[in-house]
Amino acid sequence: MNAVSNALWNPIVAKEYRTRMRTWRSPFAITVYILLLGGLGWAAFSLIVASTSQAFGAGSGSNYGQLLFTFLIIFQVALLGFITPALTAGAISGERERQTIDLLFVTPISPFSIIWGKLLASMSFVILLLVLSIPIFSLVFLFGGIELDQVVYAFAVTGATALTLGFIGIAFSTLFRRTLPATVAAYGAAFVLFVGFFAYGYVFPTEADPSVTIAPAPPAVTLISPVVPLLAIASNQPIQGYGIRYKDGSQGPYLNKGVPAQAGLCGPTVNGGVTCSSAVYQFSFATGTTLPSGLFAGWQYWQASILMQLLICAVALLVSALVLPPVRRFRPWRRDAPRPGRRMRSS
Amino acid sequence: MIAVEQLTKVYGNRSALDHVSFEVPEREIFGFVGPNGAGKTTTLRILAALLEPTGGKAFIDGADVTKQRERVHMRIGYMPDFFGVYDQLTVGEYLDFYAACYRQSKRRRQKIVEDLLALVGMIDRKHQLVDTLSRGLKQRVCLARALVHDPAVLLLDEPASGLDPRARVEMREILKELQGMGKTIVISSHILPELTDLCTMIGIIDRGRMRATGPVREVIAGLATGRRLRINVIGEKDAAIEILTPLESIRHVESVNGAIEAEYVGDERAAADILFALTGAGIRVSSFTPVDGGLEDAFLKATSEEVG
């Protein structure tokens, strides 16, 4: 218990809170974040209303809510993609540049606690941003179309993405001695996480037999990108046509090879006969946000996404913890000491 | 208290430390002297368990610096040659942070901060932001930081560098007070005259090799193979040179600006014998002055010789 409380609350966390919140940068960042998110929410809502009223003069409230939620949640995760690397990429390299890292290394605080303290402080700020965005997201409930559990899952995926970017930022901050290359690398990693894994679904989609009646899931790695699970959560269904390629080159079973979802309606005629309307064919892709196939078959999109992101976090933490200590235990390339009397080139 | 045995550090094919050995008993102030790049910082970083030696061993109060790092860290207070401070923290908060890092309780931390600020004479600066302090005051705060856990050993890497003369005197006074408190102190510097008064022991390092180590007087005597005397006599200068030249302790005699300069081997006793030889021969000596530079002279001699 003592070890856990030490890990969760070490002096670095308190110091980081103090120094972070005393500058003008934090309130400024919070203000800009809320203004951008609120502004985009308003702009998206205006666009949705304008487009639907032009089309038919009426759009259902639930569609408004769902579209607005989709815009907000994607924009929020993108904003965090810009903010989180900036919060963490300088965490360790900044200590090196400020020449304060040795003063920490000579204290009994373990390198793991240093990493954890830095991460906890940065992630607390991200959580603060997420909490502050809740009132904006609550507007979605005015229109309906979004359930509370969808919001919770979407925030969980968003939080996991911010955490992953935080861990990656810290890892690069320990790997690079300077903050600038660490920041560039962290933003590069954020781009790969968001766009790279999403694009993977288009470049290397799941090969499927067109005779299948239910469209398969996109490749598992595409779920590392928060875009795929967030769109699935917001629309409560998979992204249609994403990450799947049918072997015969067709667009899949749902265009012309679907199974009858509803038999023709039959009824008596006035002269005692029977007449039937033609059968109704409709799409037969998977419904809901359960992955129908693949590595995570039966899992929810958000579950698979969070699990994979947490695995990345674990790898990043391991790298950070191995690289940070000034005297490393694990060092296979360690040199042997020269023998006394052996002549070395002196400085 | 501190034992260094055959310490070696190699970077690539460059030797930063070449089998360095020395010992510092308890309550001594050990002056670690050497020119820039001699290996002082490397040695201190190894002693602070911040750097792994390529070979050799080092112990702080019996704790091996490579195997018992946490024990070493609890016994040392380390002040690096270059250090930074956190912005947006006051002096009191800065010291409180490091005291918390050493797992001191909150109640105890308050007393530690007050006591240390009193020790370094900065009690009135407690609420000032630490990054707005002058360099001299930052050095003092950093010294206070090294003391938050009351370590038995202080490793101070160039604590007086970049300070004005007044700040240096103040730093020296604080160090003397710490010596009085029973701390064992290792202090590195290339500002030699400061260490002559302060240190009880000295080690001279050059190009990674320890050239001399021991009590200050012994090291100076051991290295001073050619101490110089400036002698003024009334008339009879040539006669005085004739008397000096055959003496066993005399290495070289010359006339410089009307005075006689004589290089000799030995300690004060040898100098007294030289004076006795002159006055015994009826030479009227008006002044008899040693012109050696003390520690600085010994240092220059030690470091000017070719290594190996």
In words, what does this structure look like?
The complex is a heterodimer of chains A (347) and B (308). Helix content of chain A is 60%, strand content 5%. Chain A has 347 residues and is mainly alpha-helical. A two-stranded parallel ribbon of chain A has the order 1-2. In chain A, helix 2 (11-21) crosses helix 7, helix 9 packs across helix 10 and helix 9 (148-175) runs antiparallel to helix 11. Chain B is an alpha/beta fold and 308 residues long. Chain B folds into two domains: 2-222, P-loop containing nucleotide triphosphate hydrolases (Rossmann fold); 224-304, Alpha-Beta Plaits, CATH 3.30.70. In chain B, the strands form three sheets. Chain B has a six-stranded mixed beta sheet with strand order 6-7-8-3-9-10, sandwiched between helices. In chain B, strands 2-1-4-5 form a four-stranded antiparallel beta sheet, covered by helices on one side. Chain B has a four-stranded antiparallel beta sheet with strand order 12-13-11-14, with helices on one face. Chain B is elongated and about 75 Å long. Chain B starts with a strand and ends with a helix. The mean pLDDT of chain B is 86. Chain A binds chain B through residues 11-12, 14-15, 18-19, 22-23, 98-100, 102-109, 326-327, 335-338, 340, 343-347, and chain B through 6, 8, 10, 13-16, 18-19, 37, 39, 45, 48-56, 66, 69-70, 73-74, 76, 78, 80, 82-89, 93, 97-98, 100-103, 145, 207-209, 307-308.
